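Recap slide: ent-kaurene monooxygenase, sequence and predicted structure.
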Amino acid sequence: MALVGATFQDFTPLALGTAVALAGLSLWFLARYACGHRSKPTTPQTLPEVPGLPVIGNLLQLKEKKPHKTFTQWAKTYGPIYSIRTGANIIIVLNSSDVVKEAMVTRFSSISTRKLSSALKTLTFDKTMVAMSDYDDFHKMMKRLVLTNVLGPNAQKRHRIHRETLIENTSRQLQIHLKNYPLEAVNLNKIFDYELFGLAIKQVLGKDVASIRVGELGITMSREDIIKVLVTGPMEGAIEVDWRDFFPYLRWIPNKSFERKIQQMCIQREALMKALIQEQKKRIDLGEDIDCYLDFLLSEAKTLSEKQMAMLLWEVIIQATDTTMVTVEWAMFELAKNPKSQDRLYREIQSICGPEKITEDKLCHLPYLSTVFHETIRKYSPIPVIPLRYVHEDTELGGYHIPARSEIAINIYGCNMDNKVWENPEEWRPERFLDENNDTVDLFKTMSFGGGRRICAGALQAMVISCMAIGRFIQEFEWQLKDGEEENVDTQVLTTRKLHPMQAILKPRN
Ligand code: HEM
């Protein structure tokens, strides 16, 4: 967070605004809670509990696998903070911005570790990722490395060329679709996902890959195979459930099929990452240096083991695609559904860019575009529930005593749907972030990027890519949902990713 703020000013004015907002946000957290806590009652009360069944607790009530929605529903009865039981585990669920900020900032030192599911423990090579680690020296080192070379403002300036290629390629694919099938709906998800993966690979390895021979597995992988092994497979694996996580006293019972499945994913990923790295090392040996994360880690992070290095590289690849895709797809869905908003955005872009294509330097002059982005990550929080945090010493939240060894679920979706903070939260209305002079206000009031020391490291990249993509898609085409598509609002398990990719009909502008 400090690193993000420190060097923002020499990026675009958008980034400067972001830096000020992020810095302001954390100061605001501090000020608010420094004051807030003085007036809290001194005797902590007993936390409300959602009633469940003996032994299994509330597990059956969560079987729909949309915990963010179930938690938000329970908050209506039990309030912004309550406890649930998943088998033998106690989880404290936080559903309002106030109590979430308290956990992320004021009480952070007591809640700075993670408790990972068995699947995540294996897939993250026991917390060897910035986002899944405990807050310790290793975490700080990893975060510094990724900010310096990939995600911080200076690094983002150097990677601008890759973002421009991403937008150009996607736009070209949409033009081709329109030319060949003018009356058929386009699947934006398929095109944009593929390009986002390309961007991540270039940031990490320096060059895109079409296919690769993976010696350890004795196979050649196509690009589709590579995406499956590095992104879609592990994402499905991350939400695999080992029932023994809920009943640790039964851990002696084997769960071989689960273990084999996750192990297999790790073996394939490791072999593939090794092959990808070897390929690039040949380039480096030939004297061809590229400004990418691999080259940087090889020269600056010599204490990392090969496996740790592969994990750090993989983290950027897996994080670069999903959340940005979720944001852009839902934003285009809402714009296609709301012609007035679409028209307003088009007019704003026309007035600033005229006949020129939108560029990153123009983003700070496009306030409505910015509100479209922030309203979309409010309504469709791309990370609806933050991976569980762990309370390692007794603490207090919202005036309640929180015992050590509790787990904390931060329901970002619940905060963003809180009708005490947001008027008609179900409604997608970018105008809520504009004042009477059409200036943007409170853009970071959503909790979508988290807060405090674990604030999202990729917020700048996500904002710039999403705004550039949305802006360019609206500049070039008029978007209309295919008949029946408006009702397709279901999401994939545990996430806010659209279950059925958006189907939209395009019309050229001019
Ligand atoms: C709209 C898009 C995105 C949203 C809404 C989002 C949201 C979040 C949230 C809520 C957290 C905090 C988790 C916590 O408190 O434990 C987080 C952390 C993180 N995000 Fe993002 N993210 C987005 C895009 C990205 C991208 C594109 C990248 C990288 C390519 C990225 C990299 C990270 C990393 C490395 C962390 C861990 C930070 C830490 O633990 O110190 N994010 N993100």
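The chain is about 50% helix and 10% strand.
The first helix runs from residue 2 to 6.
(End of recap.)
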